[in-house]
Write a structure and sequence with these properties.
Structural class: alpha/beta
Oligomer: single chain
Radius of gyration: 15 Å
Number of strands: 5
Bound molecules: shikimate-3-phosphate
Order of helices and strands: EHEHHHEHEHHEH
Distance between the termini: 12 Å
Helix content: 40-55%
Pathway: Metabolic intermediate biosynthesis; chorismate biosynthesis; chorismate from D-erythrose 4-phosphate and phosphoenolpyruvate: step 5/7
Cofactor: Mg(2+)
GO biological process, one term: chorismate biosynthetic process
Shape: globular
Protein name: Shikimate kinase
CATH superfamily: P-loop containing nucleotide triphosphate hydrolases
Largest sheet: 5 strands, parallel
Number of domains: 1
Catalytic activity: shikimate + ATP = 3-phosphoshikimate + ADP + H(+)
Number of helices: 8
Amino acid sequence: MIIVLLGYMGSGKSSIGRILAKKLNYKLIDLDDYIEEKENATVKDIFRTKGEIYFRKKETEYLKALLKLKENTILALGGGTPCFAGNMEAILEEDNAVSIYLKGSLPFLSEKLFQKKAKRPLIAHIETEELMTEFIGKHLFERSQFYNKAEITVLTDNKEKAEVVEDIILQLF
Ligand code: S3P
């Protein structure tokens, strides 16, 4: 089985993926890390030198290949992955995959991301917390239609990571 973790930037996909993979003894693949390895460049540099359209093309290409894996895998996506090029449909159509939306609220994501924006090309330029909240509010509104298609939703606000992992396991098995 492939457990696909999706959600907005800062929702904990990578860190929760790591704990879940250990607990279930699954392999972990973080799509951003995978892209960085394959392209031999950071996501930030890919955006800067080749542009977002190139990044999205590669993201779709690698996602589709990874969805065919036969090993038990936790696949942590990038925040935008489900929202482009029919990727969410591809995930939902894959019999072997189950999708989980890690859902954080706007205030929760906004506060966290303001501290951790540097590596994220889409938000790195935002200068105040107020502007960050405004940007994420709009972005989340556009993207929620994709995230909400996930088969399972787990709320993450004010929860320890271990608690989120327990919630996922309870809903999965
Ligand atoms: C993106 C999220 C990032 C990364 C890229 C674009 C997005 O991943 O894929 O910067 O469009 O939301 P994280 O969600 O892991 O930050």
